[in-house]
Amino acid sequence: MKALMLAGGLLLAAAGAHAATLDTVKQRGTLACGVSTGFAGFSTPDSQGNYRGIDADYCRAIAAAVLGDAAKVRFVGLTAQNRFTALQSGEVDVLLRNSTQTFLRDASIGLHAGPVNFYDGQGFAVKRDAGVTKVAELNGASVCVAQGTTHESTLGDYARANKVTFQPVVFERVDTMYQAFFAGRCDAMTQDASALAGAVSVAPNPADYVVLPETISKEPLGPFTRNGDDQWSTIVAWVHYGLVEAEEAGVTQANAEEQAQGGNPVAQRLLGTSGEFGSRISLDNRWMLNAIKAVGNYGEVFERNVGGGSALKLPRGRNALWAQGGMMYAIPFR
């Protein structure tokens, strides 16, 4: 009984240690943001070492909202194996690393899954000259897959459900997996379709590869925070909703200051001209104005990193606004 009470006390102490992430970030003066180090379009360092991509932009947006400066981010490169541990231990304040939201991840590892900021699906990349057009045609093929990801288990689920056989070649690191696939070690490579498009775009000979149009799973990607810190989880969630709401309201990186003084009541609330939305979460009233000025609205973030303005040139698809046939829907700012 005494041991149980002690264990319970330790758990409560650990929860309390992370219960005020906002205060920690403000005192530190920087946001520690967990990201990947090799997903083109999401988070990868450029030639100057600056992280680029959707996830990197979300880190900057959160820093701008909380600290008033998008540059006050320390990017922490994480692997699929250590990403959740890094968040649980407090090494990072928020995880934005192409992480799929699932029941077990939401319910059993002490973390909170935030809103989906990218709807994806598990796909396959193959050599173009292999003549493969469907996943079923990969029966018996060797498939490169990253360890510790949902892709590893989904590959097995698909094989059992469709009575096909794959020969998984498992890699601890994603960059090693890419190298092996492009060196011809595997017949195919499986991952989120968007990540595969990014990998192919920077391959030695991009035209030699193709990402199959078929996907075999739902991969809703989004931020993770720690359980027990509702205030911080709320801030992270509403930065996302604010970026989507900004796109709906026509607020852009270029016109945000002007829109703050305009006559649109939605934009006024969003940008801090009316109401006291910032004080309710212990932030400056200009928190979303700062975030939008830093990275733009959701559509701008998408287009710049994975859409028409990027090397990936992915269609909006499910990631279009709900009014345009997609699934991006912001909870109202009111």
TrEMBL record:
Protein name as annotated: Amino acid ABC transporter substrate-binding protein
Superkingdom, taxonomy of origin:
Bacteria
Organism expressing this protein natively: Teichococcus wenyumeiae
SMART domains noted in UniProt: PBPb (SM00062)
Record's keyword annotation contains Cell cycle: no
Gene Ontology biological process: amino acid transport
Pfam families in UniProt: SBP_bac_3
Hey, what's the signal peptide range on this chain?
1-19
Solute-binding protein family 3/N-terminal domain residues = 30-264
| Keyword annotations from UniProtKB, A to Z | Signal, Transport
What's the family?
Belongs to the bacterial solute-binding protein 3 family.
